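Posted in: Protein Modeling Q&A

I'm a second-year student putting together a small comparison for a lab meeting, and my supervisor asked me to include a predicted structure for Sucrase/ferredoxin-like. I've never done this before, so apologies if this is the wrong subforum. The sequence is pasted below exactly as I got it from our records. If anyone can share the structure token output, I'd also love a short note on what stands out.
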Amino acid sequence: MTRCADLAADDSREGTAPPGDRWLLVEHPGPWGRVAFAQSGLPAAAVGAMDAWARASRGRVLLIRRPGRRAGDGPRRWFRVDSRPGHESVRTGTVVDDAGLVDAVTAPGTPHDDPLNLVCAHGRHDVCCAVRGRPLAAALAAADPDRTWECSHIGGCRFAPALVLLPHGFVLGGMTPAEGVAFAAGYAAGRIDPGYLRGRSTDPPAVQAAQRHARLLTGEHGVDALRLVAVEAPAPGRWRVVLGDPDVVVDLAERRVDAGRPLTCAATAPGWLREFDVLGTA
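Accepted answer (user: helix_wrangler)
Welcome! Here is the predicted structure, written out as tokens:
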């Protein structure tokens, strides 16, 4: 059976990272509903607290679990991540039951210095995420078990497998398990490879696209390189993105393209794609 990720092999990835300045990750072994944190048996008070946190902080709430394992009845981890440039950080803590999740959105927790590798494996939301995500999660867990988690729906299922590298919020898609292991190791060493980069969650789509092109142009792979200085819209569908460290200006044209097909395995109506053309760089 041909699935959405097969049909999207030639779709442009750049500019498709889901938006989010912060992330709340909650260990919940399952089962996960289609809308993960709202339909997975969590108490209404916890769902309400997490939803309010996400709205107030431009945050994303994900359920996480260890690849290939189910947690027992003991304490479960949570992570609260700040991905904003210059504020990248992770704090963590535990809860003994679902009721404790209400406090996780504001609890101070403790600093967590290691990066986190998240792989979307949310099969109930989209089959491609499970079929392609679980082998990547297994490979990452074999190489770096403490940093690796399966997670619920991220967005852009057609680019499965989706890999999120935190705390920076870089989102990659479509790589093989071996490539994913190499990219995660590079990120832990302070580098980001633009080859499968969809973007950084803190940036709008045009900036995500501009940064990827700037990385390809300059060969600069540092995780903190090419910071956003300014973004302008000189005309409808036109963007000028000014980046620093090193200094690069990227002019882009944004197009909306009818895909002529549903974009996910669960969708029934044809969708549309956002694409960017580079008009010039300086």
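A couple of things worth pointing out for your meeting: DSSP finds six helices and 14 strands in the chain. The longest strand covers residues 248-258.
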